[in-house]
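Bench notes, afternoon.
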Amino acid sequence: QVQLVESGGGSVQAGGSLRLSCAVSGYIYSSYCMGWFRQAPGKEREGVAVVYTDSGTTFYADSVKGRFTISQDNAKNTLYLQMNSLKPEDTAMYFCAADSPGRSWSRALTPLGYNYWGQGTQVTVSS
């Protein structure tokens, strides 16, 4: 049973930074397609950043490029999302998700079909 547990959310002012963490346990894949997704009230869940852990290939939503960085610590089985220059529009519940590394790159940022999800951590950015 794969479990993903997010942490690190909170409330910050615009321009501030946060680092989210996602601890992975019970993994069954030797590598993963892992990513961060977010969902604001009344909006659909959207992809933020994804990494293929075997190759290190990353994908970012246009809205976060240059501000957010996804990274992994294989020794700790932990995924991170460093978020800088936060904006009020970044306010959302952030989720960690994992899938097999065979997931098509064209669907990396698409939430549909990811096998495993965490419970989410709230990020609130005030202006």
